[in-house]
Amino acid sequence: MSNNTIELREVLKRYGDKNVVDGLSFHVRAGECFGLLGPNGAGKTTTIKMLLGLAEPDAGVVSLCGYRVPSGARFARQRVGVVPQFDNLDPDFSVRENLLVFGRYFGLSASKTRAMVPDLLEFARLENKADARVGELSGGMKRRLTLARSLINDPDVLVLDEPTTGLDPQARHLIWVRLRSLLARGKTILLTTHFMEEAERLCDRLCIIEEGRKISEGAPSELVANEIGCDVIEVYGTAPVALRDELAPLAMRTEISGDTLFCYVRDPEPIHARLAGRAGLRYLHRPANLEDVFLRLTGREMQD
Ligand code: ADP
Fold first, then answer.
1. Which residue range(s) make up the domain with 40?
2. What tens digit of pLDDT does each residue of 135-165 get?
3. Ligand 1 centre from 114 Cα, in Å?
4. Is residue 210 part of a domain?
5. Using a 6 Å cutoff on CB, does residue 187 contact ligand 1?
6. What sign for the dihedral angle of Cα 183, 131, 118, 84?
7. How many alpha carbons lie under 13 Å from residue 209 in its C-beta half-sphere?
8. d(CA 131, CA 119)
9. Ligand 1 mean position to 49 CA, how many Å?
10. Given 2, 117, 142, 266, which residue has the most CB atoms within 10 angstroms?
11. Ligand 1 mean position to 22 CA, how many Å?
12. Rounded to two decimals, what is the model's pTM?
């Protein structure tokens, strides 16, 4: 096989009469961080389940670490760490015990696992919590422990399903720092996320899926340049439809999402001049980002 650690070709998964993954193809190279993005129900978790051999595709080819799955999933999984969407730590066990128990799933000896625990605790920044019960940890600490636990078999590949959903910004930043350190160590990461900022910061490449189909793929900066290619002025605090009629002639394109009007502009000055000093109205001029790409491609906000 090529140096693709993960490869999906024309993968189809049907539930009832619905194709929830519909001819999806993408690959992840060794050492890369790849993001799988899409609104709720797009098929991200189903795709991950097929990759891990937990759901069988109805058609197409899935391979992981050089093994076809699901047939070779048992072998592939030896080289993979998984952070599921919902923490499944044992709340009655201590932090240390959770790591020790997990080592057993991989058939590691108790002494080998015990020897790894200090490094994993340090990685998770939980050195002072080794004997605390998991039930006493904050959400961010639990996520860091789940991430550390996924490293128990020293995997080449990490698969993370919404690793920072439900965390506050500070806890999210701490996870990002840990993920970047894993990338620096040469790990390959596949993650799903609702957070465009997360994808923009971490991912070398990503693909956006909707209704099980790929609608765009590339490096974050490439997608922003190709799909948007200009700056954005966001306007809030007034009826967006009436304002759009007024501002559309001054913009290359406009979009409304919720109570916000987005004006895509090469030259922001005419809109600045029009809006300056208007009571009750707020606006923000910024470079385009992945959220704009998502809105453009799907007509929806990401956090639905
Ligand atoms: P995402 O992770 O992008 O939110 P999912 O992969 O969880 O999307 O779900 C994709 C679609 O498949 C949804 O419409 C969901 O209701 C449906 N689905 C997921 N799992 C099952 C299942 N086991 N049985 C039937 N439908 C399912």
1. 4-224
2. 999 999 999 999 999 999 999 999 999 999 8
3. 38
4. yes
5. no
6. negative
7. 26
8. 15
9. 11
10. 142
11. 12
12. 0.91
Same domain, 220 and 239: no
Count the domains in the chain.
Answer: 2
User: Do 208 and 281 fall within a single domain?
Assistant: no
Neighbours of 104 (CB within 10 A): 12
- Are 241 and 190 members of one domain? no
Q: For residue 303, what pLDDT is reported?
A: 45
In a domain, 303, yes or no: no
Return the residue whose CA atom lies nearest to atom 23 of ligand 1. 15
Span 99-115, pLDDT tens digits: 999 998 888 899 999 99
Q: What is the pLDDT of residue 226?
A: 94
Distances (CA, A) of 29 to 119, 186, 188, 208: 27, 11, 8, 17
3-state helix, strand, coil in the chain (%, to 5): 40, 30, 35
Counting atoms of ligand 1 from 1, which one is nearest the CA of 39?
A: 3
**236: CATH:** 3.30.70
pLDDT tens sequence across 41-81: 999 999 999 999 999 999 999 999 999 999 999 999 999 99
Shortest-distance Cα residue to atom 25 of ligand 1: 15
135 lines ligand 1 (CB under 6 A): no
Residue 235 CA to ligand 1 center (angstroms) comes to: 35
Q: Is 240 in the pocket of ligand 1 (CB under 6 A)?
A: no
Same domain, 15 and 121: yes
